[in-house]
Amino acid sequence: MPEIEWAAVRTRRDQLLLATDFTQLPDYPATAAQLAEVTAYRKALRDVPEKAEHPDKVVWPSLPAFVK
Question: What is the CB neighbour count within 10 angstroms for residue 63?
Fold first, then answer.
């Protein structure tokens, strides 16, 4: 059932990306450093399926503190 577990990982990843979509809007009030931090966070989320060895061993990146 690993394919089902990986599907769950991708679903969670997609939800976390969706939760930060607003940070990508041009009028989002953030500094350049904050935008770089959230961009790195989103890239790390997109990379989760390729970098994790097993669905049970996913290390999720931390949401930047300024994102509310």
Answer: 15
